[in-house]
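Sample intake sheet
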Amino acid sequence: MKNLILFLLLLVPGCIYSQEMKVKEARLLQDDLAALDNPVVDINGNQCALLKIDAGTLEGLTFPDSNQYVKAEKVGNEYYVYVPGSFYKLKMQQDKYLPLEVNFKEQFGIRFRSGSTYYVKLDVPTANKELLSDVYINVRPKQADLYLNNELQSKSSDGNYKFQVEAGNYNYLVKGGTGFFCGRALTITNPKLA
């Protein structure tokens, strides 16, 4: 029985920039009553503040620290995030970008008030060829399949795979014909910024 060996041959950064989301703007929407019209309360029964996060066409934005918010939902091109009135930090992430934690108090002088609505504009760089990294992976046995984030990559007859990816977090899995498999997490970053 053949052992399945996974060997990461070479990871070549294809750019000198990292894919980072940033908050371009954050401000109170004094005339927006959405937080009052559709109130959401925290565990203490206090009304939350509403953050309307404009992410443009970015899909899959998540808020991994559930202690920082009460409710999050996508409405059109915005993410509505309800936060307790006393909070001022929020962590955001998306698979193709580095995680972002924003301290609204320090960066924008904002401490969320219960029942108020805020506008937050994300600055998200668009993917382009210059921001991709080349990844080379050699697998054994040569006829094994390679999956990147659960998506089968094109078949390889010699066990060598080459593909381009944006900076971000990935999981890869190699499945051999004998039922063996091996998987790992892979983070693509810019070594010059690390």
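Comment: The CA atoms of residues 2 and 58 lie 43 Å apart. The mean pLDDT is 80.
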